[in-house]
Amino acid sequence: MTEVATARRSRITPEREAELYAAVLDLLREVGYDALTMDAVATRTKSSKATLYRQWGGKAELVAKAVRHSKPGRTTDVDTGSLRGDMHAMVAREDDCRMEQNSALMRGLAMATHNDPELLQAFRELLVEPEMEEFQRVTQRAIDRGEVRADCPALEFVVHMMIGAFATRTVIEDLPPTRDYLTSYIDAVVLPALGVPVTT
């Protein structure tokens, strides 16, 4: 990246960036991904469209980074000393209301990826792959502690299980994901699949 490009990108402060991301998520909840435009984001955030494109390249990257920014900290920041404690702590970082909002948002975006290869690529590169890498570090700590066998076949499916639980509860039960639901799911499904004893 050239010095000029770096200087241009650095003009947006972290606080301003957070404001932009929050506005993008609000717009997504109001109109959905397909109807979201860079013009609308520019108007809502009192930004120039040129600045938005210079900073993010396009709608797909902006949306993926906004979703990533809304996550409550890095997964690897959680280290309670046990895999069960880590997974429960991750769930506890968001309240039920926020989970319900995020669940609806992610269902809409998941549908949009079917018709938008650029959004799918941005999600994989900027959201899914980084989160999978972070989660692999958490499970590696559990392996290093001797909680999980390194050759456990369920290891590669942990993220799939968690995303599945979060995304499908509304479809199957017409209920939003909640802390209690996800905590119970972890104890009943994820940890047993990894061979981790669950003691209450």
Radius of gyration of CA atoms, rounded to a whole number? 19 Å
**Termini separation:** 53 Å
> Which structural class do the helices and strands define?
mainly alpha
| Number of helical stretches of at least 4 residues | 10
Shape from CA axes? elongated
Detail the poorly predicted runs. Answer: 1-10
What is the residue-averaged pLDDT? 88
The quaternary structure here is single chain
Order of helices and strands: HHHHHHHHHH
| Number of E strands | 0
What percent of residues are in strands? under 5%
- Percent in helix: 55-70%
Description:
The protein is built from ten helices and no strands. With 200 residues, the protein is an all-alpha fold.
Tell me the layout of helices and strands.
Layout: H1 3-9, H2 14-31, H3 38-45, H4 49-56, H5 59-69, H6 83-92, H7 96-113, H8 117-144, H9 158-173, H10 179-193
Helix pairs in contact: 2-3, 2-5, 5-8, 6-10, 9-10
Task: Give short descriptive properties of this protein.
200 residues, mainly alpha, 10 helices, 70% helix, elongated
